[in-house]
Amino acid sequence: MSETTTHVVLGKPVTMPVQVRTATAFMGMFSVPVRPAQELVARTGLEILQYRPGHGICTLVFVDYVDGDLGPYNEFGVCFLVRNHHNRGDGIVGDWRSLVGGQAGALIHHLPVDGDFTLAAGRGIWGFPKTLADFDTDHDSSTKRGSVSADGVLIAELAVAPGFPVPGNGLAASLAAYSHIDDVTRCTTWEMNPSGVRTRFGGATLRLGTHPIADELRSLGLPRRALTSSSIADLRMIFGNATVV
């Protein structure tokens, strides 16, 4: 990433690319039917990637940003694996090629956070759909736990049991992160450099509340057994500028 532009957020300069030097995360990946998932994301112009015919992937993730250019904060993401916007109309074989070749994208569908500055930066710089929420998380115990609520209404609780260590950097990748607010779809290059990754089949326990985000997840058939779950002890990330798709 070579962008050196500067954005002003709430009176403070934010120079690109934005770096996250220390974070921890845990997540569950769930199989969801393509048709209702596609209906949820139709306004973006993007297409749900099918890891098997008729089924896509929804990831629920809690992140604790410890040290980064936007300061410390908590985040909960509802993300869908999507086809790269250059690959619209691909079939299942193209989707498999994208998965194997690391060409799939991640649509950030919901992104509650607990900080005003990161909310303003996320929406203003990248168009990420950040909203304010309250968090109760445990990233330190062997079983990771997180709860997120908004306006006093529970969105979701997620617990991730210990997995097996993944050698090396495990999930190191450069991804296309998509966002959509105010009728505009954007794409951001998102580099991840994780260490201390543990993963397993299943291993996630999900409870949904009564918030509208929970109702959306329930419309996809959640909660159900996760395909896989993972935790990341040390996560570094870099975010470049967004481009309009």
TrEMBL record:
Pfam families: ADC
Gene Ontology molecular function, alphabetical: lyase activity
SUPFAM superfamilies according to UniProt: Acetoacetate decarboxylase-like
Signal peptide (UniProt feature, chain positions): none
InterPro entries on file: Acetoacetate_decarboxylase, ADC_dom_sf
Superkingdom to which the source organism belongs: Bacteria
Protein name as catalogued: Acetoacetate decarboxylase family protein
Organism: Rhodococcus pyridinivorans
